[in-house]
Amino acid sequence: MQLSNNKILITGGATGIGLGLTERFLQEGNTVIICGRRESVLKEVADKHPSLITRVCDLASEAERVALYEWVAAEHGDTNVLVNNAGIQQWMPIDGPDFFERAKTEIVTNIEAPLHLISLFMQLKSLNTVINITSGLSFVPLAKTPVYSATKAFFHSFTHSARYLLKPKGIEVIELIPPALNTDLGGKGLHDHAPPVSDFIESVFEQLKQGKTEAAFGFAEERAKMGAEELKVVFNRLNP
Q1: Rounded (5°) CA angle 201-106-174
Q2: Number of H helices, E strands in the chain
Q3: CB-based contacts of 151, cutoff 8 Å, min separation 6
Q4: For residue 113, which of 7, 52, 59, 210 is within the disulfide window of CB 3.0 to 4.6 Å?
Q5: Model-level pTM?
Q6: Would you state the torsion angle of the CA atoms of residues 170, 225, 87, 128, taken in this order, to the nearest 10 degrees?
Q7: Are the C-beta atoms of 128 and 171 separated by less than 8 Å?
Q8: Three-state DSSP class for 141?
Q9: How many whole angstroms separate alpha carbon 29 and alpha carbon 90?
Q10: Three-state secondary structure along 39-77?
Q11: pLDDT above 80: residue 109
Q12: Strand order in the sheet with 214-216
């Protein structure tokens, strides 16, 4: 991937990993568009980075996803990179009374939304790169986040297929695979012990400069290289 002189849309680009990607892509000399549900959060980031372009969008809504694409096509038709970063993580038991309703929100945001966006943005003639953010939990699940882990396993698998299927169209598909990082994903304080987002960003950008289409970091990198028996050991350790 060419790391500069792109026009990039990053979903969920105002917080967590998305914010880390936003700031680094700006630093690398790109035009960056971010979308998110909360206008106040988008404004806060835009105040720090005046060149940033923002758009309020609830990716759980099919109509808003279509509206996002139509706005980009009309106002920023030279957008060439789509970063599917937005996601939600819920810690919940399967026997909880609201399990299914909460599960549906994760499936819509973590699977339906990025697949829909890919299908929409492929209509842009300028599109040449799709970046999908998965997780180290793609390889071994955390049972306390059963649906989140499963959605990331799905997205990891889909990304492999998409890379193969879109190559003839000249679209590069890149997967970034983070471990737990010090963000508010899943709830405030749950990941305070984890490495900072900046370490992840530094590592994956170095890998992107090397031309890699799959960039992992920390525990996620270790898990991506493990065999089935090793992953069983990690699962038992992760889920005592």
Answers
A1: 35
A2: 9, 7
A3: 87, 106, 107, 110, 111
A4: 59
A5: 0.93
A6: -10
A7: yes
A8: coil
A9: 35
A10: HHHHHHHHHHCCCCEEEECCCCCHHHHHHHHHHHHHHCC
A11: yes
A12: 53-56, 31-36, 7-11, 81-84, 129-133, 172-177, 214-216
Q: Could you tell me which residues come within 8 angstroms of residue 122 by beta carbon, excluding any fewer than 6 positions away?
A: 166, 169, 171
> Known catalytic residue: 148?
yes
**Which residue among the candidates 148, 155, 205, 219 is catalytic per the annotation?**
148
* Tokens (6 digits) for 157: 């698998």
Burial classification of residue 101, based on how many CB atoms lie within 10 Å of its CB (0-12 exposed, 13-18 middle, 19 or more buried): exposed
Cβ(114)–Cβ(153) below 8 Å: no
Contact (Cβ atoms closer than 8 angstroms) between residue 223 and residue 140: yes
Q: What is the pLDDT of residues 54-96, one digit of tens each?
A: 999 999 999 999 999 999 999 999 999 999 999 999 999 999 9
Distances (CA, A) of 75 to 70, 79, 99, 150: 8, 10, 40, 36
User: CA 170, CA 165: separation in Å to the nearest integer?
Assistant: 10
16 and 185 Cβ atoms separated by less than 8 Å: yes
